[in-house]
Give the backbone structure.
Amino acid sequence: MAEGCVRTLARSETNGAPEFGDLKSVVLTKDRRLIATDCGKHCLWQIDVKTGKCSLHAGRVGIPGYEDGLPDEATFTKPSGICEGRNDYSSLLFVTDEKRFVQITRDGRAETIEISDESSGSAEFIHSTDDGQFFFTSAAKPDKIFTAFDQSCFIRSSPCAQLRQMACDWRGTLHVIDSANQRVGLVTTEDDGAVTTIWAAETLGLCRPTGLAIGIDGYFYIADTGNHCISMVEIKMGRPTGRPMTLCGLPKAKGCVDAKGSAARLDHPYSLALDPFRNVLYFTEPKAIREVSLIYHHPSFDTCMIESSLRTDLQALLESSAPLGTFKFIVGDQAFSAPKCILAARCNYFKSMIESGLKEAIENEVVVKDTTCDALKAVLAYVVTDRYDIDSPEPIEPVYALAHRYGVEKLVSLCRAHMVQSLSFANVFERVEFGQAYNDDQLVRSCAELIARNLKAVLELEGFSELNKDIYLQILKVSSYM
């Protein structure tokens, strides 16, 4: 899928979805449950990321309260923040409402673990770190980040700040959105460990940004709430490397249209949650839960830099005595034909085959083995037209393999760029092994960089321990200069 494609998973009272009140935070758990808080309906919803089917996760719809218990017994009052964390035994959900911090066990039981301190007010966003710390921001005290379960400890920003959603980068550094000053804050600690401050990055020129997520490539994604957009920016050492780019939505154009990029319409996007397996971003609006597709950004791969040679190849064809007729390719029980003159002009492999005088050249046909019909069609289409549909739903690996076999290097480069851009936790192990099998150092290095950047999370994935020694060495190598 291309970058910036928006899809609505569930919208209030549409296609069987329940009536939403005012959706706030959203979290994707490690077991792939997408859960959102509904401040207006005093409950939590669970959404199927494939079908968009929405079901009640906890609380009683429209009934506020502070009761603990099983899902059909527990009540919440204006739940807002939600995150996944751990206790001594297992992974749990932690939810904040108007007066409490609540943990929700695997069986859905809600248990109050702390009452909100009057000095901090109710928590708006809550975030857990890999080392077991919990932080939250509060609308009542918007210039501070509080340490949950020890609310006397807090991180102070400038008095005019309005701190919202937090996220950790691959180094474990905490970042936070400052809505009032339109910036991303980097939370740092002094050398003596005694004082913790927020070092503010440059103003990003957004409008009341609220949500924050950090992609597997290190890009920062920001819910630009006042502009009805989601923006992205690369930030290194706390500073943006350039101006924010709009991922989806059109500034100041409010709406509810599913489309790509600026053709999409959003309505006050609020909270963000990254899915590293599908490489999509989930976000809440007051009455909807939606997703937008991402790509893995790598500076070495830009498909726009791969220039077309079709014009020069056809010019050379006019100036030569090219072979006439067509050449037939057979895969299984299907056959495809292409002009011999184009094949010979555009690909040295085909030129040698046609001019060889061997059986294939005499009969003007060849049986192609160890590939698929779709891959052959894609390679022939590229040779003839210099175009390849990278958004095709068909697997890209067979196209790469056949282009590699025939020496169509520009198509190999296009496939490589697309394989890098579509990297995710779901395919990175397969693609690093694929790159190694074809001696593709660029693909292997890009996969190793993703693994190194997200090493803590990747270590928990099935398949990491099965990688071979050379891949581990490559991961160590890229880690040394990141």
Q: What stands out?
A: The chain is about 20% helix and 30% strand. The CA atoms of residues 4 and 367 lie 40 Å apart. The longest strand covers residues 229-236. The mean pLDDT is 85.
